User: Which sequence fits this backbone?
């Protein structure tokens, strides 16, 4: 941790020169722009069709994962809270938007179907029809209370931000108030995401239990737009969100605020003695990252097409921490590198796309061995490269002053 | 080791395939989880598909083309099913996909399948309430498994008090909803139906088994209908055996327990409990004997068992081959139409027929568990046509599916309209 | 059952006269009789078996009873060509040697596919056993007599009273006689002909909490709902039902409309359907169709149709109330004698308190059992996490390793008892070694970075999980308890606990004591505590902290391995089993209070009882119990961040 401490002592950059003080932000924006442009040109929907819609979706989802990874980096790498529950916020964002996608899509189908009858349907009949469609799958036909406003896009969009934000606020307030720190806090956040997952797994919750919400890739009102086009819309949206999120967090961590939260990470008690409201800072960071995670989830799940409670099981959040650790904590681009490389490599190797390696006596079948190597990789990174892959940049930068 | 040979086989198959037509070799997608919690059941289905593809290639392939299996691993991750379906249909450009086990995974891939007009064969018993244009359901619908089993309880065992135990997800929920309303219609009082849901992989069964035993004090014959899925069954049956629940006192009929699941258990204390399926390995027919022999040879292990979803793939695959031959092309719409009315002999005797609602007509078998982990077939019906929509649920009572005449999978006979052409997922 | 009565009476006569009867005329008397009811014998069903039994017993061919027994044991085969029945034994080449049922002589061979094995189901067998009870009760073999008594308990019948009385007089085994007397009481309570005997027998069941006693009482108390303008004379009314109060109005009305006493109440979509059927020139009752998209417009349209006399008036709530008010709805006992039902009701009520107490005991035992599993899973963690502050995410995988060790041992040593005895220490050694290895290679370097041990050990966890999958496959592996642990300890009909759970409980206690001993009474324990509290000072006192850390970590891991064997005996052994316990184990340790073995004990007990307690309130949903338990833990930690057993002073470590 000694390296990090030295950074705290560096004076905050003077006002107005945020970008000059953070050249990595410009670099990142540039690369992200180039990447987006490249994918657009190569895409099926808007370009020459060199990369499949499938890959566009994967890349779009990866951008969302990068977004939650930088949120995780801020809360862990900068503020020192190892949250093992940020995927809960990601999932809640996904559920919030998923409810609208599902409801609105079904409503169109039902109105269409009932409208073909001799007598136009009443609002009640439409609502009943929608409920039967959505919940027939889980042996029920009543619309639970939490779906009351599912037909309203503005309401559900507000929920994308409000639900994760409020949960983080309440949970954070409780936890920080009682000075739960370190490992205990990690376990507590893990318990939170476990409780949420178990809660959502229940049918009585009214979110279709294990089945989750599905068919989210069909955007109501745009059913006739091919997925090759819709996937690009979401890809762009994800890229914009990632860029904006990066900018926001880079700005948050660069000023005096950033110095304080890094100080909290390194020695909470001292910061408190200096008169700072440590709990307030932590709560702010925890909540803002939760909100951004929710937004990332709301962009991710329409591309994935389905969300179910298994998505927010504790393991997902642990993987998130692992991405950030591999990418390099305490630097936003590190988180992006970690999330993008590990998740893409995982899906490439487990997808059966990678060629198996024949070592004569032994054959490495990637689908069988990838997780073993990945696991051992974490161990190696933690032991030998505590700064992660992002640490390599330090090395390069130092070589070329 | 087995897996290694299998993959080599698949690879060699690919190499040997000589392109006779423009679209040779014919690509067959296999979408079963090879890792994660469902690998337990699905890996076997991947193997059986590879075996069927091999067998067909040995017979000269289809339309003069060799078949090539494209195996992907959705890793028991529902969103990955959707992602890989898109990959199979757009990148690998497969002509047909065989795959999925849980209803959740099927629901996840349905939108992609319908969007891209793929062809899919689903081999597992399921809850019904669905008939997709692009899916052929070769497993049992509730009226081919659950309802006959309940009838057996009511008529043959005189059960008057029911405990419906299930894992908490769509299949048990929907099946139990259907069964509850069916039992009520049969004059069973609501207070004589005890329903309980447990999570996947549940291990702590002592209280629930105790509760079920306690139902016996009510003065009525108690029976258990289990839709418990996967691993959790091991704990459940261990507890049943430990508490000495004999099949004579409280019979248990399971819808998700077959030979494969019992192979992880000592069944000597479970003798007499029941399972309902469309196939049991113990069926004594020449076709079954041949199938088992081929399976043992392919997998290289005499102890491996066969089960109902394997037979479903066997029937589904052979029907698809025949439909492709009949249509003269692998074009999805042509094959779909050629599938209607396809017939193929069951492994248990009789003939399976593919109906225009995309469900099979199959016989319903009820078996009692034997000490060796196999089943004694104690009841076998004639072929029963699968119903997509349950007549016992108010919301689906008036729905029918007929893709040939009505060109609709969800047709409301009350309003004479097609509710929707895509499925609800 | 009633159809069986004549045949049972006949069978009693048969035992008495059978030896005297001359054998029948034909060479194959039994086969001849069977052929008269061929379809019933060949495809048995509970519905038709009484008819078959009656036919067989009326004809009374020699060997009928033996045949029935063999038939219900699935030892009879049918030859489809001629429909004849045979016994069979295994011959060469998977063929069956057919045996004539009359002469016992061999009657050729057949492949199993050429003949049909007849498989009567459990319902049929129960009927046959009930019919054979009369013979079995006098069977010299006590086991057979007991089986016959079980059969009576399963399908009690009025006619059995007499047979049981005869058998009771002849019975010499006192235990069996007691059982017979008890069944006789139960039968008398239900079927005796005079009220006094019945009431006496029922009073004898007061306070009896056994399932069979309560079953008998509940059977006496079975009711049927009825209705009429008044309660008919002689009806033994259980309770009157007031529509709208303890019976939904709609349900009461449905009873009437089903009986044709009132017009049917239209269903949900009735108005819409009627309107749809009455569209004239795009309007219904003068209202244009496109305006009918709300209930008021639809009702107005319906009213217009109603006034025009086109459709029947709607049934309103007032109509329903008026119709229902003319009738009385009641539940009546099937048993006509009020004295008997009153006695039964009193007897049943008298058990209520005792049942609650025993149920509470049962729940507590379940909770203890659950707590002991949590404790076993978490105790290793209490050492590595609690004492050393190392977050070992691979702890669950050590549990899995232990379970797989047990499985491997069982495949090598077939005797379950011996293999268990070998597996427990071996599992300890294997996971001890794994723990030491992990400590040396990884954790040692991360003592100053506790959060990073979490990551590194998580990496090890997923690697181990996948490795187990590659080695053992994804299939669940059996880990079978020896026979002496396979049963259950039956306290009474309400409380029974599987022996294996008792063994696990004992093992948990054993580990608790062992750990307390090691930590508090041995040199190692002293050194562990010293290193935990102040490694620098401990080192300067001549303790080698490296060695102590290694041993402590090994100990914690080794215990996880043993826990794995015991958990594998009650649950499933899969590569993912460890992952199922890890989060819960962490919570157990944290709730209990880090750094204390007693804390873990308290945590496990709290969580076990809490979960069972919540389940008790909501038995239909186990998941809810788990959810609320985790929520409770989150809140609990807010208010007692240091857990139940909070260490004070320096030992608290921060």
Assistant:
């Amino acid at each position: 941790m000694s390296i990090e401490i030295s950074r705290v002592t560096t004076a905050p950059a003077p006002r107005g020169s945020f970008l000059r003080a953070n050249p990595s932000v410009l670099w990142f924006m540039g690369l992200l722009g180039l990447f987006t442009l490249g994918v657009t040109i190569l895409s099926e929907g808007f370009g020459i069709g060199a990369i499949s819609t499938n890959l566009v979706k994967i890349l779009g989802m990866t951008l969302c994962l990068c977004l939650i990874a930088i949120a995780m980096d801020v809360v862990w790498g900068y503020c020192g809270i190892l949250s093992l529950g940020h995927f809960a916020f990601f999932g809640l964002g996904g559920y919030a938007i998923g409810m609208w996608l599902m409801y609105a899509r079904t409503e169109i189908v039902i109105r269409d179907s009932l409208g073909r009858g001799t007598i136009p349907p009443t609002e009640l009949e439409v609502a009943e029809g929608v409920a039967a469609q959505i919940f027939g799958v889980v042996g029920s036909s009543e619309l639970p209370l939490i779906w009351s406003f599912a037909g309203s896009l503005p309401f559900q969009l507000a929920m994308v931000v409000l639900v994760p934000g409020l949960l983080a606020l309440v949970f954070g307030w409780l936890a920080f108030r009682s000075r739960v720190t370190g490992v205990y806090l990690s376990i507590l956040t893990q318990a939170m995401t476990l409780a949420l997952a178990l809660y959502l797994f229940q049918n009585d919750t009214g979110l279709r239990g294990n089945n989750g919400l599905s068919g989210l890739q069909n955007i109501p009102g745009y059913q006739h737009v091919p997925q090759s086009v819709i996937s690009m819309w979401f890809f762009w949206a994800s890229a914009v969100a990632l860029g904006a999120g990066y900018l926001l967090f880079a700005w948050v961590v660069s000023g005096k605020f950033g110095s304080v939260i890094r100080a909290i990470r390194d020695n909470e008690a001292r910061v408190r003695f200096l008169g700072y409201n440590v709990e307030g800072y932590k709560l702010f960071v925890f909540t803002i990252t939760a909100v951004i995670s929710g937004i990332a989830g709301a962009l991710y799940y329409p591309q994935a097409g389905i969300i179910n409670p298994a998505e927010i099981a504790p393991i997902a959040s642990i993987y998130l921490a692992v991405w950030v650790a591999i990418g390099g904590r305490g630097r936003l681009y590190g988180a992006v590198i970690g999330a993008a490389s590990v998740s893409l490599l995982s899906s490439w190797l487990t997808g059966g796309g990678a060629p198996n390696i024949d070592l004569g006596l032994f054959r490495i079948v990637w689908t069988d061995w990838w997780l073993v190597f990945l696991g051992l990789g974490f161990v190696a990174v933690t032991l030998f490269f505590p700064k992660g892959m992002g640490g390599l940049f330090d090395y390069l930068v130092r070589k070329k002053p | 080791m087995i897996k290694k040979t299998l993959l080599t086989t698949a690879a060699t198959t690919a190499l040997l395939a000589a392109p006779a037509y423009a679209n040779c070799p014919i690509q067959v997608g296999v979408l079963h989880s090879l890792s994660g919690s469902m690998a337990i059941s699905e890996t076997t289905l991947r193997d059986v598909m590879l075996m069927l593809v091999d067998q067909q290639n040995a017979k000269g392939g289809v339309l003069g083309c060799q078949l090539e299996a494209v195996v992907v691993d959705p890793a028991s991750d529902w969103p990955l099913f959707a992602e890989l379906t898109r990959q199979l249909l757009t990148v690998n450009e497969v002509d047909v996909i065989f795959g999925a086990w849980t209803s959740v995974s099927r629901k996840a891939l349905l939108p992609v399948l319908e969007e891209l007009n793929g062809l899919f064969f689903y081999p597992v018993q399921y809850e019904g309430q669905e008939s997709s244009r692009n899916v052929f359901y070769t497993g049992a619908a509730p009226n081919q498994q659950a309802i006959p089993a309940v009838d057996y309880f009511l008529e043959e065992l005189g059960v008057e008090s029911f405990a419906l135990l299930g894992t908490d997800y769509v299949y048990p929920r929907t099946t139990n909803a259907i069964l509850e309303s069916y039992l009520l219609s049969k004059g069973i009082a609501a207070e004589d139906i005890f329903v309980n849901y447990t999570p996947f992989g549940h291990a702590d069964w002592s209280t629930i088994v105790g509760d079920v035993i306690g139902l016996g004090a009510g003065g009525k014959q108690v029976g258990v209908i289990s839709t418990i899925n996967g691993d959790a069954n091991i704990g459940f049956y261990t507890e049943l055996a430990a508490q000495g629940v004999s099949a004579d006192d409280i019979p248990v009929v399971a819808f998700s327990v077959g030979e494969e699941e019992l192979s992880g258990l000592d069944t000597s204390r479970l003798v007499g409990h029941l399972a309902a399926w469309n196939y049991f390995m113990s069926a004594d027919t020449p076709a079954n004997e041949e199938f088992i022999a081929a399976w043992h040879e392919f997998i290289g292990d005499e102890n491996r068992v066969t089960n109902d979803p394997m037979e479903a793939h066997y029937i589904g695959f052979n029907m698809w081959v025949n439909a492709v031959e009949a249509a003269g092309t692998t074009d999805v719409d042509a094959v779909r139409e050629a599938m209607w009315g396809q017939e193929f002999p069951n492994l248990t005797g009789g003939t399976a027929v593919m109906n225009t609602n995309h469900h099979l007509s199959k016989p319903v078998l009820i078996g009692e568990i034997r000490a060796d982990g196999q089943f004694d077939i104690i009841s076998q019906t004639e072929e029963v046509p699968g119903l997509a929509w349950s007549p016992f649920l108010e919301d689906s009572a008036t729905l029918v599916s007929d893709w040939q005449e009505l060109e609709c999978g969800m047709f409301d006979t009350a309003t004479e309209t097609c509710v929707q052409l895509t499925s609800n997922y | 059952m009633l159809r069986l009565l004549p045949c049972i009476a006949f069978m009693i006569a048969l035992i008495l006269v059978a030896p005297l009867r001359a054998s029948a005329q034909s060479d194959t008397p039994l086969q001849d009789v069977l052929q008269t009811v061929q379809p019933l014998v060949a495809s048995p069903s509970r519905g038709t078996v009484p008819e078959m039994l009656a036919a067989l017993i009326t004809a009374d061919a020699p060997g009928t009873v033996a045949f029935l027994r063999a038939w219900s044991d699935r030892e009879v085969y049918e030859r489809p060509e001629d429909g004849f029945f045979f016994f069979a034994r295994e011959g060469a080449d998977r063929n069956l040697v057919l045996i004539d049922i009359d002469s016992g002589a061999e009657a050729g061979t057949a492949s199993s596919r050429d003949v049909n094995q007849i498989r009567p189901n459990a319902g049929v067998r129960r009927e046959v056993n009930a019919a054979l009870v009369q013979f079995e009760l006098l069977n010299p073999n006590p086991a057979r007599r007991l089986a016959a008594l079980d059969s009576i308990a399963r399908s009690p019948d009025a006619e059995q009273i007499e047979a049981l009385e005869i058998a009771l007089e002849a019975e010499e085994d006192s235990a069996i006689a007691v059982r017979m007397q008890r069944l006789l009481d139960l039968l008398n309570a239900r079927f005796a002909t005079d009220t006094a005997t019945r009431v006496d027998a029922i009073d004898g069941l007061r306070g009896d909490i056994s399932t069979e006693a309560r079953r008998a009482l509940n059977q006496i108390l079975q009711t049927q709902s009825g209705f009429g303008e008044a309660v008919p004379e002689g009806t033994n009314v259980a309770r009157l039902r007031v529509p709208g109060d303890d019976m939904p109005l709609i349900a009461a009305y449905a009873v009437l409309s089903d009986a044709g006493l009132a017009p049917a109440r239209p269903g949900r979509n009735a108005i819409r359907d009627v309107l749809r059927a009455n569209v004239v020139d795009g309007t219904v009752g003068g209202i244009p169709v496109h305006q009918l998209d709300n209930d008021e417009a639809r009702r107005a349209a319906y009213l217009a149709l109603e006034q025009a006399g086109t459709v029947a008036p709607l049934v309103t709530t007032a109509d329903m109330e008026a119709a229902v008010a003319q009738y009385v709805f009641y539940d009546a006992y099937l048993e006509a004698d009020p004295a008997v039902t009153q006695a039964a009701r009193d007897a049943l009520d008298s058990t209520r308190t005792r049942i609650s107490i025993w149920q509470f005991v049962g729940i507590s035992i379940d909770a203890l059992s659950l707590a002991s599993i949590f404790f076993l899973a978490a105790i290793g963690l209490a050492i590595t996490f609690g004492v050393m502050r190392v977050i070992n995410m691979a702890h669950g995988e050590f549990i899995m390793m232990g379970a797989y060790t047990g499985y491997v041992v069982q495949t090598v040593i077939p005797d379950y008892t011996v293999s268990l005895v070998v597996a427990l220490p071996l599992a300890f050694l294997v996971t001890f070694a794994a723990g030491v290895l992990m400590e040396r290679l990884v954790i040692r370097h991360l003592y100053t970075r506790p959060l990073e041990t979490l990551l590194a050990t998580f990496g090890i966890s997923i690697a181990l999980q996948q490795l187990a999958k590659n080695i053992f496959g994804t299939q669940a592996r059996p880990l079978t308890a020896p026979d002496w642990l396979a049963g259950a300890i039956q306290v009474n009909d309400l409380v029974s606990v599987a022996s294996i759970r008792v063994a696990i409980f004992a093992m948990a206690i054993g580990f608790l004591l062992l750990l307390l001993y090691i930590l508090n009474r041995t040199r190692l324990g002293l050194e562990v505590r010293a290193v935990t509290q102040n490694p620098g000072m401990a080192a300067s006192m001549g303790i080698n902290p490296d060695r102590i850390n290694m041993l402590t970590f090994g100990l914690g891991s080794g215990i996880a391995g043993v826990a794995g064997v015991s958990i594998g005996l009650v649950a499933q052994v899969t590569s993912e089993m460890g992952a199922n316990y890890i989060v819960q184990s962490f919570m157990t340790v944290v709730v209990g209070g880090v750094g204390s073995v007693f804390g873990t004990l308290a945590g496990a007990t709290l969580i076990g009882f809490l979960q069972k307690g919540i389940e008790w309130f909501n038995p239909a949903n186990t998941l809810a119990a788990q959810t609320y338990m985790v929520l409770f833990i989150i809140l609990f930690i807010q208010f007692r961040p240091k857990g139940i057993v909070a260490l004070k002073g320096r030992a608290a470590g921060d």
Residues 2-399 of chain A form one domain.
